[in-house]
Design goal:
The protein contains six helices and eleven strands. By secondary structure, the chain is α+β, with helices and mostly antiparallel strands. The strands form two sheets. An eight-stranded mixed beta sheet has the order 2-3-4-7-8-1-9-10, sandwiched between helices. A three-stranded antiparallel beta sheet has the order 5-6-11, with no helix packed on it. The longest helix has 16 residues. It is globular, with a radius of gyration of 18 Å.
Length: 211
């Protein structure tokens, strides 16, 4: 391992990050429904038939755990689960949405944001390895945005992306959202400085932890 690799590994340790680290999170938002996902994609909302087609592709997410978590979310009635599946094939992707969110704690920067009325937040996201590289993540995002604004009457649809996730940043720019804020947290010897830069002046969220 190179010297840079060793230093990067050390910097990612939780104890070190609490003492000395820099983190940034981009907030993207949409306020128009856009075109939605392509018509040839079978995108559904809260469809357990799709959910049960989930295939385990990573050690930490079994099919049983995924199906159980989906059933619990749907029973609570606060979360929408958007899915897309191949005809007679496996679940190809999913994404979650929370309509009428009041606030969100973004743990990456340790900052809480209070949302305006009729704000929906997007989170979670998965694309099956066999379907990656074909714009499916962006298509699911387009489907969520259109449904939340056009069908549910949300004013804002918001997603957060950490600055180091270059793939998610690139995908966000293809999915009908625009940058509205940038949250930064700098920690030095246990002291934290939190800032929030409002990029879009019409985005009236409250950044309660920022200096």
């Amino acid at each position: 391992m190179s010297g840079d690799g060793i230093l990067s590994k050390i910097a990612r340790q939780p104890a070190v990050a609490r003492l000395w680290s820099d983190h940034a999170l981009h907030l993207f938002a949409a306020d128009t429904p856009g075109a939605g996902a392509p018509a040839d994609l079978d995108v559904r909302v809260n469809d357990m038939g799709h959910v049960r087609r989930f295939e385990q592709t990573v050690p930490w997410q079994t099919r049983e755990d995924f199906v159980s978590a989906a059933e619990q979310r749907l029973a609570e009635g606060k979360t929408l689960l958007f899915t897309v599946a191949a005809a007679d094939g496996p679940l190809l992707g999913y994404g979650l949405a929370h309509p009428n969110s009041e606030d969100t704690l973004y743990t990456h920067v340790g900052q809480r944001v209070l949302w305006p009325e009729r704000t929906a937040t997007l989170y979670g996201g998965y694309v099956h390895p066999m379907a990656r590289g074909h714009g499916l993540h962006a298509a699911l995002q387009l489907a969520r945005i259109r449904y939340l604004i056009a069908d549910l009457g949300m004013r804002w649809v918001v997603s957060g992306v950490v600055s180091t996730n270059l793939a998610a940043l690139a995908s966000a720019r293809k999915s009908g959202v625009r940058p509205v804020a940038l949250l930064r947290t700098r920690r030095r010897l246990g002291m934290a400085r939190m800032t929030a830069e409002r990029i879009d002046p019409t985005f009236d969220a409250r950044f309660v932890d920022a200096a």
